[in-house]
Amino acid sequence: MAHHIGQLAALVTAFCWTITGITYQIAGKKIGSVNVNMIRMLIAIVLLSAYSYFTYGSFLPVNATSHNILWLSLSGLVGFVFGDLCLFQAYVVVGARVGMLVMTLSSPIAAIFGWLIMGETMSATSLLGMALTLSGIALVILERPSDNGENGTENGKLKLSYPLKGILLAFGGAFGQGFGLVLSKYGIGSYNAIQGTEIRAIAALVGFALVFFFIRQWPKFFQSVQNPKVVGVVAIGSVFGPFLGVSLSLFAIQHTSTGIASTIMSIMPILIIPAAIFLFKEKVTSKEVIGALIAIAGVGLFFL
Asked: Which of 3, 143, 223, 230 is the most buried (most CB within 10 A)?
């Protein structure tokens, strides 16, 4: 199992980010996705700084090199600011389940940039695992709408069942996560994953502050933090997202390729199915169950 520690960390990351997606969808509909981003980043920095202090005696990652700081900061701006601003608004427009489904595109995006920037390659088994995982997820999300005629037969054409705006926002989130993950791997090296996450979070906080300034969001933000129940929901998401989840994702890419790690993380749409049934009262079809089994089989190939 130690040989597959990176794959295992990526799998746990997927569970953490599934919890995050659920909590942020709930909170985003109450106070807006932009405010959720700022609140969760503040909470994450408090948690990460506390970890750094009790573990290394300093609230800040003072032992980071200039290489770590530069590339991890860029990763934070790309992944947290651009990517998550797009993704969390997608949660509001089309829901966490659909947003996560489109986010599976982060896997090939990460693999492509990993090949272009760092010359990463994957074995035939890993490529097959990626193909199986993405095929299973595609089976879950794609459908042929029936004709409006009296027979109700399938017309053979695939159509978007959700607003184009939401799909494009989710794609922006996929690009931010995929490209940001590669930048993280390039910047993290052998540096501590949690302290590396703190560098990303601090850079993201600065980025969000600038965004808030330009869109004049600060008054609405201070109003949103007066809702303790919603802040509590965001806090839960922050523990499993930018604290545990992102730290584990950095640990994963330290021990396996970004393409493999990103593909394993992309099973979030499968993991969120129980929540879709019990929390959001969505119906799950047999096709979705089959797609889930195919995706899980694909993930299993990464452990061979």
From this structure: 230
Instruction: Write out the two tokens for 55.
Output: 């573990």
Q: What are the pLDDT digits (tens) for 33-66?
A: 889 989 999 999 999 999 999 988 899 998 999 9
- The residue with tokens 């054409």 is 157
Give me the residues paired with residue 146 across strands. Answer: 154
pLDDT band at 152 (very low <50, low <70, confident <90, very high): very low
Q: Which of 67, 175, 48, 64 is nearest to 112 (CA)?
A: 175
User: Whole-angstrom Cα distance, residue 1 to residue 273?
Assistant: 27
* CA atoms 79, 80, 85, 88: torsion sign: positive
- Output Rg (C-alpha) for the chain, integer angstroms: 19
CB 117 within 8 A of CB 285: no
Q: How far apart are alpha carbons 121 and 245 in whole angstroms? A: 25
Spatial distance between the Cα atoms of 93 and 170, rounded to a whole number of angstroms: 10
Distances in Å between the Cα of 271 and the Cα atoms of 121, 129, 267 are: 27, 18, 6
Contacts of 122 (CB under 8 A, 6+ apart): 111, 130, 257, 259, 260
- One-letter amino acid at 72 equals L
Quick one: which of 254, 245, 120 has its CA closest to 187? 254
Length of the chain: 304
Looking at the DSSP bridge assignments, the partners of residue 154 are: 146
Q: What is the pTM of this model?
A: 0.79
